[in-house]
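We include the entry.

. . .
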Amino acid sequence: MDKSRLEALSNGVLAILITIMVLEFKTPQTTDWAGLAAVAYVILQAGFIRQQGHNGPLATAIGRNVKARSTPVIYVAGCALTFISSMFGLAAYAIVAGLWLVPDRGLERALRNGTSEA
């Protein structure tokens, strides 16, 4: 057997093994896109703050909002942990819902002050 035939055989075997490995991947039972949407929101928010400046109206309204900064982290952790158990994803959603059950007074105050100044 010459070298080119041996290479072709090994490439074929490797391709078959990779195909079998890909077919064995298990898909998650739930699809949780909320974590990715939260990350997209953070990126969009950062873009607006960069455009308006750190003293702009959005940066002033958000301030040091712990709830808004922790929500995407919890969502992404919930999405990642859903691969282990779907209960982790549900727990992450419940935690975020509990955080936002009480409205954010800082944002409301900033909106009220912003509309009265106009």
User: Anything to note?
Assistant: The mean pLDDT is 75.
